[in-house]
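Exercise 4. Each item below gives a protein and its sequence. For each, produce the structure-token representation.

Item: Olfactory receptor 4D5 (Ailuropoda melanoleuca).
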Amino acid sequence: MNPANHSQVTGFVLLGLSQVWELRFLFLIVFSVVYLLTVTGNLLIVAIVTSDPRLHTTMYFLLGNLSFLDFCYSTITAPRMLVDLLSGHPIISFGSCLTQLFSFHFIGGIKIFLLTVMAYDRYVAISQPLRYALIMNRTVCGLLMVASWVGGFIHSIVQVGLTVQLPFCGPDKLDNFYCDVPQLIKLACTDTFVLELLMVSNNGLVTLMCFLVLLGSYTALLFMLRGHSREGRSKALSTCASHIAVVTLIFVPCVYIYARPFRTFPMDKAVSVLYTMVTPMVNPAIYTLRNKEVIMAMKKLWRGKRTFWVPWNTDPQISRGRA
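Answer:
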């Protein structure tokens, strides 16, 4: 489908975070550092998980995938935003806008499904440790990852499919630093009430339900830990606490943005910055600061010691994580 046949607008002006040059220059410095830390931290985790044989477990395989997705997620918006901060009139073409929208929801959808898989992995490791290696084997984990990617693709293509049919005849100013559904729908030259309901159902309600299910599952896990030994409980609690922190940082902003009518609120841009820039940066720190295995692997990688690859380990005693 050719968007030009349905629209008189060929591009949009991104209003960004501020029109004041001094603030834009400050944002440029701050978010350049944030993006650099995001890229370094997430790719470092990917390298560590890949290179250290002790981390060839289900839990760290999923963690490495999450770090890679965080890197991709931030790269979809951050480089464009940094360039636009230097431009007086940042303009994005209609096609580029839809591409950014698709990529943004594609990676975001995969992350949501991956976090659900990670919660299931912890549930099996804690509730059925003797059968963990059988249940969460390499084949099952790979299939769950494929399902996450397919789910993210379906979610994203629905967003683009509904948006591309809208007529855009002006205005052409997007009140954000990237293209997303809430801002685009407000510029459409038609009644979008029904479409908003569909978008809220596809985005907001699904995200909210996943968030509540994840919180419920981690709550159940915390109750299960009461019967474990003190050492085992401490390790599992540390891992679950990291997961809960990441889930909260990712899901709460998404629920705020998408599970409500698409209207402009004062905190919208701040929340957008939080989950597109800040959260991908802090996720590596949350997962590694209290994780002794990752810290040891990081030191080993830093010292330049070479290790030989060994088959993927699914030992439940290792996979439950050592914090």
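Check: The beta strands are 11-14, 91-93, 173-174.
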